[in-house]
Design brief:
- This protein has 12 helices and 15 strands.
- Helix content is 36%, strand content 24%.
- The radius of gyration is 19 Å and the shape is globular.
- It has an 8-stranded parallel beta sheet with strand order 5-6-7-8-9-10-11-12. The protein has a 3-stranded antiparallel beta sheet with strand order 1-2-3.
- 52% of the residues are buried.
- Its EC number is 5.1.1.-.
Length: 328
């Protein structure tokens, strides 16, 4: 078995502003695991929030390459979850290619159904105009980044422009507990479908307090990074955001999904800004989720891959073994 990788810069079509940062580009490392004529691919993206830069990714990939074909538990456990996610994705696609089936079949979803994804409106973007444009493109789910001074008005503008759409609100932990309860109550006329991480992570008792007072389902994002976190959030929130880049890939995501089901928690499948290669594993897991926020590839100026769709709000697989992607 051989591991190869290449580096690239993913540039966003427009800078994305959230409550804690602004991003216009990020580096990505495409990994390929090949063995006996078959190959599987995955993607690792840099993240300031998760403390992962390109140099550290390459350093850890060197360790993986030197250890192949036997990846011991200690080595895997020592990898950053983002690196582990890319390598794990490549292993899953390699298995799917060898078997000759789409990856979702290996994930336990033998039938594929086209699904709707949210599209994000960042802070600073004209909320009403952006929502109107998204609806015209075909989107039925709109996500509004919050954490600014005019959150209630922005969400109301989105509802006015997208009267039949499902609205997700994401302050990225930018509200205080009191603000969260007050703002969500004021947003009730806008019929918000779900709110992600309303308050800063690390305050589970306060998060439970917000959840108990909210008419809107509350989903933890920054507060959940491991399967153990999922179990501990039972009774604290209504759902969990499972991002493969923070859990360590499809293997741990499947375990987290199973834990969420056991705990009575709904699942939101989210993503980092990535190419279609980075988004594809989550798309193949979409049958397990109540909400999908898998628009990372749609935010790019030039996605190097095709095969997921999504430009009209609907994710569609082209079929074929593995992820079903083709390079542009």
């Amino acid at each position: 078995m051989k591991l190869d990788w290449t580096r690239a810069t993913l540039r966003l079509a427009e800078p994305l502003r959230i409550s804690r940062s602004v991003m216009s580009e990020r580096e990505a490392i495409e990994v390929t695991l090949s063995d006996d004529g078959a190959a599987g691919r995955g993607e690792i993206v840099t993240s300031v929030y998760y403390g992962l830069d390109a140099e550290e990714i390459v350093r850890q990939l060197d360790l993986v390459s030197a250890a192949l074909p036997d990846l011991g538990d200690d080595l895997v456990a020592g990898l950053h979850p983002g690196v582990r996610a890319g390598v794990d994705a490549a292993l899953w696609e390699l298995a799917a290619v060898r078997t000759g089936v789409p990856a979702h079949e290996l994930f336990g979803n033998p039938q594929w159904t086209d699904v709707a994804t949210a599209r994000t409106i960042g802070l600073g973007e004209p909320a009403g105009e952006s929502a109107k444009a998204l609806v015209e493109q075909g989107f039925t789910v709109v996500k509004v980044k919050a954490g600014g001074p005019d959150d209630v008005a922005r969400v109301a503008e989105v509802r006015s422009a997208a009267q039949d759409a499902r609205i997700m609100v994401d302050p990225n932990g930018g509200w205080t507990p009191d603000e969260a309860v007050r703002l969500l109550e004021r947003m009730e006329p806008s019929r918000v479908d779900v709110v992600e991480q309303p308050i800063a992570p690390g305050q589970r008792a306060r998060l439970a307090w917000v959840t108990a007072r909210s008419m809107v389902p509350v989903v933890a994002d920054e507060d959940v990074e491991t399967v153990a976190d999922v179990a501990e959030l039972a009774g604290v929130v209504d759902g969990v955001n499972i991002k493969l880049a923070k859990f360590g890939g499809p293997t741990q995501a499947l375990a987290a999904i199973e834990e969420a089901r056991s705990a009575g928690l709904d699942v939101l499948l989210g993503c980092l800004v990535s190419s279609s290669l980075g988004i594809a594993p989550a798309v193949h897991l979409s049958g397990y989720a109540r909400w999908l926020d898998l628009d990372g590839h749609l935010l790019l100026a030039d996605d190097p891959w095709t095969g997921l769709g999504g430009a009209d709000g609907t994710l569609r697989l082209r079929g074929g073994p593995g992820w079903g992607l083709e390079r542009r």
